[in-house]
């Protein structure tokens, strides 16, 4: 069906799927880490500059 290069083609698809899956997992885990770090900073009273100054 895939000819004499079938194993090479399937290996390439497998490696590509593995790399894309790893990147997706890394992105999700890094996003959770950053959200946790931001929450800890905000709990300590550190605010983002984009949040503006509090109204007096």
Automatic annotation (TrEMBL):
Q: Where in the cell is it found?
A: Cell inner membrane
Task: Please list every transmembrane segment annotated in the UniProt record, as residue ranges.
Answer: 6-29
Q: Which InterPro entries match?
A: Haem_export_protD_CcmD
* Assigned keywords, A-Z: Cell inner membrane, Cell membrane, Cytochrome c-type biogenesis, Membrane, Transmembrane, Transmembrane helix, Transport
Signal peptide start-end:
none
- Pfam families given in the database record: CcmD
Q: How does it sit in the membrane?
A: Single-pass membrane protein
What is the role of the protein in this entry?
A: Required for the export of heme to the periplasm for the biogenesis of c-type cytochromes.
Report the family membership: Belongs to the CcmD/CycX/HelD family.
Name of protein = Heme exporter protein D
- As recorded in Swiss-Prot or TrEMBL, the protein's gene is named ccmD
């Amino acid at each position: 069906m895939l000819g004499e290069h079938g194993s090479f083609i399937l290996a390439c698809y497998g490696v590509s799927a593995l790399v894309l899956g790893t990147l997706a997992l890394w992105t999700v885990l890094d996003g959770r880490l950053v959200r946790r770090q931001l929450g800890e900073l905000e709990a300590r009273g550190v605010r983002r500059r984009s949040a503006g100054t509090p109204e007096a």
